[in-house]
Design brief:
The strands form two sheets. Strands 2, 4, 5, 6, 9, 10 and 11 form a seven-stranded mixed sheet that branches. Strands 1-3-8-7 form a four-stranded antiparallel sheet, with no helix packed on it. The model has no long low-confidence stretch (mean pLDDT 96). The protein has strands at 4-7, 10-12, 18-24, 32-39, 46-51, 58-60, 68-73, 78-83, 92-100, 115-116, 120-124. It has 126 residues and is an all-beta fold. A hairpin with a 6-residue loop joins strand 5 (46-51) and strand 6.
Amino acid sequence: QLQLVESGGGSVQPGGSLTLSCTNTGFTLRWYSLAWFRQAPGKEREGVSCISYRDGRTDYTDSVKGRFTISRDDAKNTVYLQMNNLSPEDTAVYYCAAQKTIDYHCSLSESSMNDWGKGTLVTVSS
């Protein structure tokens, strides 16, 4: 079982940027597709972005396209989420998740994930 640890959350003003990181200690993440989810207060958890382990292809939920960028550094066993032009609607706990799969496409479905981090809080407020 992976031990995913998120970092980089915090408070930022609207229009600001943050970069989240998720690292696993122990097993390599090289063979996992990786994803970021978020859960805003009073809302269900939603998939934000994912990146395939096979060829690095990515996917994003519509509300973050053009603002968020997911990337991975397998040498560092880390996945990143660069978040730009943040708005109050982006306020949430952000979770890193890993999917063991043979598919070329990554998934933004909670039920497809095998391992989860504990989350990091992002607050966007003036």
